[in-house]
Design goal:
It is built from 13 helices and 5 strands. The strands form 2 sheets. The chain has a 3-stranded parallel sheet. A two-stranded parallel ribbon has the order 4-5. Strand 4, helix 8 and strand 5 form a beta-alpha-beta unit. It is globular, with a radius of gyration of 22 Å. Bound molecules: adenosine-5'-tetraphosphate (AQP).
């Protein structure tokens, strides 16, 4: 079976951008690939984080993934920080990664522009991402469009390492979902935890509505009587993922003919969206009542991940001519 790897940061709620862009795909793909999924807590350290809630957020993200349908009998699910080889391989990859490549990454430019003091972690984030994937020799990586540039760099790092030290790593391919870039409720930027323009998939229907109600729509529609253009409206785009096709056509005509207002259009979306996530919310509530189960899944996942990781790092160290340590590798 071809091996697949992907990760998600525990930097906030699992939102519909994460779900439609990546996690929905993860659940499907675990049936046909040897899937390894990771809650990337080390990556979360490169942004703003609160030490008082980081571990809780990590557990919550794992619980949400399980509620979405990640099945520990089909996939390895673990926490990045539980496998120290991620950091070791990242450091090794730093030695083959030109700094100029990192400085031109769009995500680095965007996120560093929002920070007064830019930490090094933000710059070398894509090197850690390359290490995450290549530690497991992952060949396929399901991600949203925002990560495609990082994946290209991962391929380049694999190529550079292989050229210098001999064939070791595959060049992984990104696997995009049909919802590769979900726009946030501001109607402008990518839906993103750090931009606060998200709707979480586990939120109560009431809380979903509180966020959806003021969401940005077609600016031409100041009043209900103003005809709109659905293709300019992010709410209509979201209908595309939650509303049956025949109803979408009705909504589009009603919007163009000004027979439905944005409020009613959002109400329909809210109902369909919240119905879609109801079974996931229920599973999440069940999992909340057995916290030991989530911890056990993550422990077993880390143990499975560690045995692959140690093998890869052993091979890498040997190829790079590093002195082996006879006592290394014990728990
Ligand atoms: N808006 C989006 N549309 C489609 N896919 C998306 N993803 C994230 N946002 C969207 C995909 O979700 C996976 C996990 O992402 P992540 O949380 O590890 O990092 P991210 O891409 O940086 O997500 P956020 O929400 O923007 O987090 P912050 O603000 O903390 O950086 C990835 O596959 C991503 O492509």
């Amino acid at each position: 079976m071809t091996r697949l790897f992907s990760g998600i940061q525990p930097s906030g709620e699992l939102h519909i951008g994460n779900f439609l862009g990546a996690i929905h795909n993860w659940v499907e793909l675990q049936n046909t690939y040897e899937a390894i999924y990771c809650v990337v807590d080390l990556h979360a350290l490169s942004g703003d984080f609160d030490p008082a809630i980081l571990s809780e957020r990590t557990l919550t993200m794992a619980r949400h993934l399980l509620a979405c349908g990640i099945d520990p009998d089909k996939s390895v699910l673990f926490v990045q920080g539980h496998v120290p080889e991620h950091a070791e391989l990242m450091w090794i990859f730093c030695s083959v990664t030109p700094i100029g490549e990192l400085e031109r990454m769009t995500q680095f430019k965007d996120k560093s522009a929002r920070q007064l003091s830019i930490n090094t972690g933000l710059l070398i984030y894509p090197v850690l991402q390359a290490a995450d994937i290549l530690l497991y020799k992952g060949e396929v990586v399901p991600v949203g469009e925002d990560q495609v540039q990082h994946l290209e760099l991962t391929r380049e790092i694999a190529r550079k390492f292989n050229t210098r030290f001999g064939p070791t790593f595959p060049e992984p391919a990104s696997r995009l979902s049909t919802a590769k870039r979900i726009v946030g409720l501001d109607g402008q930027a990518k839906m993103s935890k750090s931009l606060g323009n998200t709707i979480g998939i586990i939120e109560s229907p009431e809380s979903m509505w509180d966020k959806l109600r003021p969401a940005f729509t077609d600016p031409a529609r100041q009043r209900k009587s103003d005809p709109g253009e659905p293709t300019r409206c992010n709410i209509f785009t979201l209908h595309g993922y939650f509303t049956p096709a025949e109803n979408q056509n009705e909504i589009a005509s009603a919007c163009r003919g000004a027979t439905i207002g944005c409020f009613d259009c959002k109400k329909i979306l809210h109902k369909n969206m919240s119905d879609r996530f109801e079974p996931i919310r229920q599973r999440e509530a069940e999992l909340q009542s057995k916290p030991g189960y989530v911890v056990d899944v993550l422990e077993a996942g880390a143990s499975a991940a560690r045995s692959i990781a140690r093998q890869t790092v052993g091979e890498v160290r040997e190829k790079m001519g590093m002195l082996p340590c006879q006592t290394a590798g014990g728990d």
